[in-house]
Amino acid sequence: MNKPGQVFIISGPSGSGKDTLIKALMEKRPEIKLSVSSVTRAPRPGELNGSHYNFITKDEFLRMLDNGEFLEYNTYLGNYYGTPRAQVEAWLQSGADVILEIDVNGAGHVKKKLPDAVSIFVMPPSMRELGERLAGRRTEDEETAQKRLLEALREMECAGSYDYIIINDRLQNAVRQLECVVEAQGCRAENMTETVKGVLKDAQSVNWQTSQNV
Ligand code: ADP
Ligand code: 5GP
Predict the structure, then answer these.
(1) How far, in Å, CA of 107 to CA of 118, rounded?
(2) Which pLDDT band holds residue 137 (cuts at 50, 70, 90)?
(3) Which of 70, 44, 67 is nearest to 55 (CA)?
(4) 175: Cβ contacts below 8 Å, ≥ 6 apart
(5) Which pTM value belongs to this model?
(6) How confident is the model over 154-169, as a mean pLDDT?
(7) Domains of the chain by start residue, with CATH
(8) CA-CA distance, 173 to 158, in Å (whole number)?
(9) Residue 53: nearest ligand to its CA?
């Protein structure tokens, strides 16, 4: 049986650069899976159904919730967001690592259900920079952007409860740090047992006396 995959939770305020960092990580590690959440908000310009999110109605969301189809869910600025359970569980069972890009409440729920999940918080270098990035993205009107900035303060207060914090100042540095976290997790002793067993098994098959005389 495969070793189950690893869950990486990535949170951070809207505009902090989560999507940008995840995209860069997945270009380098295409084997990692990204969970596609279901959401009741309208798509932003450029967002594709089934790719960025599954855009569904509130009724559909509530039906799925009733059926226990979400691993976790939360409301954010009046909309429902949820992680579909079946796909994530299938990936993990197949041994694939999975990224969940979810908010701080969702992260708390997942950590309770899956304590081995590694949580990463993406911080902007400053509030001013966050405001500029949100405005620069041009996906929200002024009022929505303001609401997201207010939410950002609440979210950043939770950063200390995460396993890792990445400051997304210079993009290249932040991408490198994210890769390091993923890489380091793969090297944890509990994730290396099969590799170590393989080396030891191979060592037992060698006739050491003969090989030392060679
Ligand atoms: P999130 O997914 O957290 O809402 P995005 O990845 O959409 O954030 O990033 C918000 C905006 O900031 C985008 O326009 C993106 O191109 C830009 N951005 C992301 N990281 C950086 C960075 N390190 N420096 C400058 N701009 C960035
Ligand atoms: P956005 O509208 O900017 O795409 O997302 C708003 C917030 O919802 C972000 O913090 C994002 O990480 C979070 N989010 C996206 N999908 C999910 C989800 O499935 N569950 C939870 N709990 N949060 C989510």
Answers:
(1) 10
(2) confident
(3) 44
(4) 21, 24, 25
(5) 0.94
(6) 97
(7) 7-196 (3.40.50.300)
(8) 23
(9) 2
**Which residues' Cβ are closer than 6 Å to ligand 1?**
12, 14-20, 133, 136-137, 168, 171, 174
Ligand nearest to the CA of 148: 2
**Ligand 2 center to residue 66 CA distance, Å?**
20
Report the DSSP pairing between strands 7-11 and 98-101.
parallel
CA distances from 125 to 135, 151, 177, 178, 195 (A): 16, 16, 15, 16, 39
Determine the pLDDT at residue 211: 60
3-state SS class at 165 = strand
Looking at per-residue confidence, does 141 or 25 come out higher?
25
145: left (phi > 0), else alpha (psi -120 to 50), else beta? alpha
Model pLDDT for residues 20-59, shown as the tens digit of each residue: 999 999 999 999 999 999 999 999 988 999 999 999 999 9
Check residue 176 and report its DSSP letter. H
Distance 46 CA to ligand 1 centre (A): 15
- The pLDDT of residue 213: 57
Q: Is residue 101 within 6 Å of ligand 2 at its C-beta? A: yes
